[in-house]
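U., I forgot to send this yesterday:
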Amino acid sequence: MSYREFFLAAAGLGEPYPYQDRLAREAWPDLLNVPTGLGKTAAVSLAWLWKRGWRLDGQRDNPVGDTPRRLVWCLPMRTLVEQTANNLRNWLANLGILGDAGQGQVSVHLLMGGESDLRTWAEYPEEDMILIGTQDMLLSRALMRGYGMSRYQWPVHFALLHNDCLWAFDEVQLMGAGLSTSAQLEAFRRAFPLGRQSRSL
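Result:
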């Protein structure tokens, strides 16, 4: 199966743009500067799935290189979180690989205020999953000060969000102090690497 076929089966958006195809074949860039509406969410998410070895109907190849097992979408607003989650669940369902945590497929977890389940994702750190959340929920956990959670769980979420994660920050012009915080966290991860590689896009 080619990446083009994989992309079309998942998103049904037509042919992938050249930059979307390059993301699936080349190393992750530090910055993806693409105008709004040209498929950044699909580009990053589907390239991540492809590099993790996922194919149609749960079939897998070996992961490409050291692609992290958790994709973390950090967004400035709830509406963007909900929109991104709906798109990702649809694409994963189209590929036949959407599942709940613990089922050995790809699960999607929302981290934002008012969600009833903010912990299940941390119970299965060995599985591929996509975390989508608001910057307050995600960055507070990455700073070991998890908003709205028991302080006894702070180190668990801190460790999991700094190991084996690809952080994707979208709409950074709306993030305010979250942008500089995320850049500083990335600098610390590069200076003091942890158990498994994590990086920001």
